[in-house]
């Protein structure tokens, strides 16, 4: 039995948590069994498997969009926002882009929609072919952009946000240092209470 056949199970799929694409419980279990590196290699060789999972999420998006627009369902309208962000990544995927699946503890699986070509000619193996439409992937949040302008604007926003977070952490660290240095600990505290 080939390893890729294990990932063709209909119980496997993807979910949206926040604005991240994450594996469902069954896929997460398989990723833990086979290690993320092996899962990434298998899914890179068979991107059609990931395509089916993404198609299910796309169908969910269309269903929620219809419920929100035509039936005025407030729950569907609330759950539609993360899926709208997913739709941008889905369009990039269809154009030959990369999808990032977030795993626990900060690790990710990146899968390209271009199937690797492994043609053996002599001793050389043809490497992964680049997509016709190159995409830019943010190293901070793994968002994919089609053009350089959109990518640069996104990076500027991400950099500003990271600076704000760093400033907050720096301010709290300074406050902790000030509190600990203002009142030095008394090494012979039992003598000071007489």
Structural notes for this entry:
The chain is α+β, with helices and mostly antiparallel strands. The protein has a domain at 1-116. Helix content is 54%, strand content 13%. It is built from six helices and eight strands. It has helices spanning 3-6, 25-34, 36-45, 47-71, 74-94, 148-182, and strands at 14-17, 20-23, 98-102, 108-112, 120-121, 124-125, 136-137, 144-145. Strands 1-2 form a two-stranded antiparallel sheet. Strands 3-4 form a two-stranded antiparallel sheet. Strands 5-6 form a two-stranded antiparallel ribbon. Strand 7 and strand 8 (144-145) form a beta hairpin. The longest helix has 35 residues, at 148-182. 13% of the residues are buried. Residues 116-133 have low confidence and may be disordered.
Distance between the termini: 80 Å
- Strand order, largest beta sheet: 1-2
* Average pLDDT: 76
Global outline: globular
What integer value in Å does the Rg equal? 24 Å
The tally of helices reads 6
Structural class: alpha+beta
Q: Estimate percent helicity.
A: 40-55%
Counted beta strands: 8
Low-confidence stretches: 116-133
Pattern of helices and strands: HEEHHHHEEEEEEH
Measured by DSSP, the beta-strand proportion falls in 5-15%
Main β-sheet description = 2 strands, antiparallel
